[in-house]
Structure formats: structure tokens, C-alpha cells
Specification:
4 helices, mainly alpha, 3 strands, globular
């Protein structure tokens, strides 16, 4: 049961961070502090790390050994286009 709760929280954290990155609320190259994010969401570090892995899989962040996680540098318009295509494809897949 606790594992499911952590997975749901990790999904929520990943979704919120994705929205912030795509909207420009978190700038390219910005460092994401695990402890700050955990505190913001009232979470332990486990779901935050899981959220970071999900963001890394989407290539929205990059993990730097011994330095933490940073937002990937990218062109905002290019990222918006990819996000729009992905949401359209996900909607089609659900049908």
C-alpha cells in the first residue's frame, strides 16, 4: 500500500515539474534540489528520486554525477511542439 502511495506521489511530482519546465517556470539549466522538492510536496526523497527518473526518461532533466539533477537546455518552442504531439498521441492511444 505504501509503495502505491509513493508511485502516485512520484507521478504527481513528475507531472507538476514537467508542467513547470515546459511553461518556463523552471529555467533550462536550473538545478533541481531533491530536498527542496521533497519539502514542497511533503514527501520523502524516494518519490522525488522516482519523479526525477521519469523526467530523465522524457529527457527533460539530466542527472550529473555528484552534482544532482539539472533541467535540460532546450528550445522552448521545440519542447512545446513535442509535448503537444505527445498529448495528441496519448489521447489517440487511449481510444
Amino acid at each position: 500500500m505504501a509503495r502505491q502511495k509513493e508511485e502516485k506521489l512520484a507521478s504527481r511530482i513528475a507531472r507538476v515539474l514537467t508542467e513547470r519546465i515546459i511553461s518556463g517556470g523552471i529555467a533550462p539549466g536550473a538545478r533541481l534540489r531533491q530536498d527542496h522538492i521533497a519539502k514542497e510536496f511533503g514527501a520523502s526523497h524516494v518519490p522525488v528520486r522516482e519523479a526525477f527518473l521519469r523526467l530523465e526518461a522524457r529527457q527533460l532533466v539530466v542527472s550529473e554525477p555528484n552534482r544532482g539533477v539539472r533541467v535540460t537546455s532546450f528550445d522552448i518552442e521545440e519542447l512545446r511542439e513535442v509535448a503537444e504531439m505527445r498529448s495528441a498521441l496519448e489521447a489517440l492511444a487511449l481510444r
